Amino acid sequence: MALSNVERSQLPIDRVTRAEFQATLMHARTNKWPEHWPEDVRSISLDGLSLIGLDHKGNMYLDGERLYTERRLARQERVIAWSLVFFTAMGAIATAAPLIFGK
Questions:
Q1: In this structure, which of 22, 35, 38, 58 has its CB flanked by the most CB atoms within 10 Å?
Q2: Could you give the CA distance from residue 52 to residue 61 in angstroms, rounded to a whole number?
């Protein structure tokens, strides 16, 4: 039997098990948040979801203001990256030196 477009649009994007679906409903009914969440973080209500938007480039907006994410390396990661750059350059110079100076 073929599904109509309306029936097809009502299918979940990700197929979840019945237990997962019931756990989600239980979470929504009890207002219990995962234990690993910080104390001041709460889930978004259905009304609050209307404040979130996306533009055609995939930028996210909350109540009309763009949300920015920052991807910066930690200090240790920057030190490791610059060390790799330095030693790679030294290796390239050491490899090219006999070709340049003829020894």
A1: 22
A2: 6
**Which residue from 70, 64, 40, 43 is spatially nearest to 52, judged by alpha carbons?**
64
The tens digit of pLDDT for each residue in 32-89 reads 667 777 777 777 777 778 888 888 888 888 888 898 887 888 899 999 999 999 999 9
49 forms bridges with which residues in the sheet?
Answer: none
Radius of gyration of the chain from its Cα atoms, rounded to whole angstroms: 27
Strand partners of residue 62: 52, 65
Order of strands across the sheet that contains 65-66: 52-54, 60-62, 65-66
Q: Which residue's structure tokens are 């039997």?
A: 1
Give the strand pairing for 52-54 and 65-66.
Answer: unpaired
Q: What are phi and psi of 13, to 5 degrees?
A: -65, -50
